[in-house]
Design brief:
Blueprint: H1 27-39, E1 51-59, H2 62-65, H3 80-86, H4 89-97, E2 102-109, E3 122-130, H5 140-150, H6 163-179, E4 193-201, H7 211-227, E5 233-239, H8 245-257, E6 268-271, H9 277-288, E7 301-305, E8 309-318, E9 347-353, E10 358-363, E11 369-377, E12 380-384, E13 389-390, E14 394-395, E15 398-401, E16 420-426, E17 432-439, E18 445-448, E19 452-453, E20 458-469, E21 475-488, E22 491-499, E23 506-508, E24 512-523, E25 529-530, H10 532-535, E26 542-548, E27 559-561, E28 563-564, E29 569-576, E30 590-598, E31 608-613, E32 621-629, H11 631-668, E33 673-677, H12 682-685, E34 687-690, E35 696-697, E36 702-704, E37 710-712, E38 717-721, E39 728-734, E40 744-750, E41 759-762, E42 773-777
Parallel strand pairs: 1-2, 1-4, 4-5, 5-6, 13-21, 22-31, 23-32
Antiparallel strand pairs: 2-3, 7-10, 8-9, 8-11, 12-15, 14-19, 15-18, 16-17, 16-20, 17-18, 20-21, 22-24, 24-25, 24-29, 26-27, 26-30, 28-29, 30-32, 33-34, 33-42, 35-38, 36-37, 38-39, 39-40, 41-42
């Protein structure tokens, strides 16, 4: 077994040399030759920046994570392999400050034939360039790029161990780096470039359906890299805590394939269980990646801290042991000296929680120490959705951000620049769309401005960034999060109302009616009708209700359970306004909204995505139904009113006027009467009809004429009339004597009983020579 050797100092491999020319006559030609040699570029050289192209190949199999078929085997469940790679950030920054241009790709491998794309071999970070930083320039932007490059790398279970496919992708990245050198930008220095492939694994390839060809693929790849003159180095780091794959089978294979070290053995190293994998991998790679220093002697170094940092640490390396604290001058943006902590023989540190943004002085020229700033960014965590979503769902993104507010959560600070939040969503087809984000108004909450529609099943990549602008308008990333959202395949379903009809108004009867409801389901794309049993879970159901458009939204809505019918859900819903809608007569209408609600929290079967009601597009509110009052209500009420009026008239006729007449008689103390009188024999033939309090008088109707004959008057009737004051009036009706048809009618009105002012009527139809009168008397009592 071999383990990773300790770091060895790298000395100056170029011996110094002096040129002695004793012939003074040769000085001019020699100087001319030297000048021309310097002025002309060497044959075959290229103007490319020096640096390293790094390709990391990371094992994310079940045996590393302790998941899947690997069972309890867990060689690196805490993700030390990821931490080791991210620990190179400071070293890469130091390299950039010394004129090196480095580039980075990260390949994660899992299963070759995995069902889901996320479980297959894939390039997580592709060809990220870390440019050189010109001397004296703020390096915070470069460090932000380094952190952003490492951000997508996270420990995740991807299934099998398809090393063959991963190395093939690594070769492709190496060839691209070879054929596409970086540009010689500001601060970069010309020189040689190295290409290094670093693989971290527990040793044994395994890929469902491809185990037989993996060894051949790996051997082919290793032969190719040995023959490729442009390929620089290949190193392997092994984890072997539980599986013993390295020791039992593959350790020797990787040692033969890896680049030989200074001892001539392949650079494949097993990390023991008692070693810190982060230190072993990071320290070794720092030796082979073009070295740099944190600060440059003779130059005043600064670091510009962006707003909203969670912390800012300064790591100080002494150039002489036990450097006094008063010789370390790291200044904050206000020019105040920062005290050191964690002092040791050759180093110290300064730790600032929630530092003020601005320009920090790290050192001045000639300072006997070097400083490496390390910003600590507040974290952003995706909190919505918290699990996979269904295809065609509308979901609002939600993040929880650390910060300086209550409970350590983000709150915009009045004295700091505004944070602008943006997100990008990449669907499984690679289509990218921006997602506007906003602060939700409560500590730590940043949400998408609108819900997002997930139309395609598969893995979505969501990247959130929060940026601020400094006084010089330079942009700084202060929040960043990259996450995956799984969208499960689903059948889009829509509900629609087959009944009632929404074309014609529904007629009410005195403000109420029963409405037949037939609710059905169909495929949201094809329109194919779907049976209820295929849509709803067993025991789940829906209810239907209604509310008047423009009514109080807080009013209780009556709901009716929908019963499973054929082919939809049926119900007879009572629509009752509680009163007759007189305002809806004469063709007037009012709007009523139908709505549905589930009887359980999630009534839909697995694989179904409810997309709402087809007629409206809303999840639960249905279309508007017009209602009107039936005109028969008006007709019937008119008939009832007419009957009531007739009844009132009859009552008045028979009782009302009689009561008023009786009341008038009592008031004026009178006893009116109608008298039948024969002038020639008034005493013998006189007939009297008392009228006090009477309305109609008809009997008796027998009277005696002057010749003694008895006359039975037909159609005889006396009807009292109501008159104001002390007046008495009647209408007398009778059939004239001897007539067989017809009637005579006479109105009599009396105000007193004087002989000259009596109300008198001479009876018609009497035989010649006879006469008789009706005389009306007021009859004062």
């Amino acid at each position: 077994m071999r383990r990773c050797p300790s770091a060895a100092p790298i000395g100056n491999i170029w011996p110094s040399a002096r040129h002695h020319n004793r012939d003074p006559n040769m000085r001019l030609p020699t100087l001319l030759v030297i000048f021309l040699f310097i002025a002309m570029p060497a044959l075959g050289t290229t103007t490319v920046p020096r640096g390293t192209d790094l390709v990391f190949v990371i094992d994310q199999s079940g045996s590393m994570m302790g998941a899947g078929a690997a069972g309890s085997t867990a060689n690196d469940p805490s993700g030390k392999r990821i931490e080791a790679i991210k620990a190179l950030g400071e070293h890469l920054l130091s390299s950039a400050r010394n004129g090196y241009v480095n580039r980075l790709s990260v390949i994660e491998f899992g299963g070759r034939n995995a069902r889901y794309q996320k479980s297959r071999v894939q390039i997580t970070v592709s060809r990220k360039e870390i440019p050189a930083v010109p001397r004296g320039q703020d390096a915070s932007g470069a460090f932000t790029k380094i952190q952003a490059a490492f951000e997508p790398i996270k420990p995740v279970f991807r299934g099998d161990t398809d090393i063959g496919k991963a190395l093939a992708l690594a070769q492709r990245e190496v060839e691209w780096f070879r054929d596409n050198p970086p540009a010689l930008g500001p601060g970069a220095e010309m020189g040689q470039r190295e290409r290094i492939v670093v693989m971290v694994t527990d040793g044994m390839p395994s890929a469902k359906g491809a185990n037989g060809v993996q060894r051949s693929e790996i051997e082919t790849w290793t032969r190719r890299i040995k023959q490729d003159a442009t390929f620089s180095k290949f190193f392997v780091f092994g984890f072997n805590d539980a599986s013993n794959y390295w020791e039992n089978a593959w350790g020797d294979i990787w040692r033969r394939a890896a680049t030989p070290d200074q001892d001539g053995e392949g650079g494949a190293y097993l990390i023991r269980s008692d070693e810190d994998a982060v230190d072993v991998i990071a320290d070794y790679l720092k030796e082979i990646i073009a070295p740099g220093i944190a600060t440059t002697p003779g130059i005043t170094d600064f670091y510009t801290a962006p707003a909203y940092l969670k912390g800012l640490n300064f790591y100080i390396d002494y150039q002489q042991p036990y450097l006094p604290d008063n010789r370390i001058n790291v200044l904050d943006p206000d020019g105040n000296r920062l005290p050191t902590t964690d002092r040791a023989k050759l180093s110290a540190a300064i730790r600032l929680p929630y530092p003020a943004p601005g320009k920090y002085q790290l050192r001045t020229g000639g300072a006997p120490y070097n400083v490496q700033p390390l910003p600590i960014f507040a974290q952003a965590r995706l909190v919505a959705p918290v699990r996979s979503v269904k295809q065609y769902d509308d979901v609002q993104l939600g993040y929880e951000l650390e910060g300086r507010g209550a409970n350590g959560l983000f709150v915009p600070q009045a004295n700091l620049p505004q944070v602008v939040f943006k997100a990008k969503m990449t669907d499984p087809n690679g289509v990218v769309r921006p997602v506007p984000m906003q602060y939700a108004g409560r500590p730590g909450a940043v949400v998408s401005q609108n819900p997002l529609r997930f139309d395609v099943a598969g893995d979505y990549s969501i990247k959130l960034t929060g940026t601020t602008k400094a006084n010089n308008q330079s942009e700084h990333v202060v929040y960043q999060s990259e996450d995956m959202i799984r969208v499960d395949n689903a059948t889009p379903i829509q509900a629609y109302f087959a009944a009632p009809s929404f074309e014609d108004p529904i007629r009410l009867w005195q403000g109420a009616t029963n409405v037949p409801i037939d609710l059905r389901f169909r495929h949201g794309h094809t329109g194919t009708e779907l049976p209820v049993a295929d849509v709803l879970q067993a025991g789940a159901g829906l209810r239907v209700g209604w509310y008047a458009v423009g009514s109080d939204s807080d009013a209780e809505i009556p709901m009716t359970d929908l019963a499973a019918g054929n082919p939809g859900l049926d119900a007879s819903m009572t629509l009752d306004f509680g009163r007759t809608r007189w305002d809806l007569l004469w063709g007037n209408t009012a709007g009523v909204r139908l709505l549905i609600e589930p009887t359980t929290a999630d009534p839909w079967r697995a694989g179904m995505n409810y997309a709402g009601i087809a007629e409206t597009g809303d999840l639960w509110v249905g279309p508007e139904l017009q209602v009107t009052e039936s005109p028969w209500v008006l007709l019937i009420w008119a008939a009832v009113l007419l009957v009531l009026l007739l009844l009132a008239a009859l009552l008045w006729w028979f009782y009302g006027e009689r009561w008023l007449i009786e009341r008038s008689d009592k008031r004026f103390k009178r006893e009116p009467r109608l008298v039948f009188s024969v002038p020639r024999s008034p005493a013998a033939s006189q007939k009297v009809w008392p009228l006090k309090g009477a309305r109609i008088v008809t009997d008796p109707r027998l009277v005696t004429l002057a010749d003694g004959d008895i006359w039975s008057m037909e159609k005889f009737r006396i009807r009292r009339l109501r008159r104001p004051g002390n007046k008495v009036a009647v209408v007398v009706r009778y059939r004239p004597h001897g007539a067989k048809k017809g009637v005579a009618t006479r109105r009599l009105e009396a105000t007193n009983d004087s002989a000259t002012q009596r109300a008198r009527h001479s009876i018609q139809g009497l035989p010649e020579g006879q006469s008789a009168d009706f005389v009306l008397f007021v009859g004062k009592s």
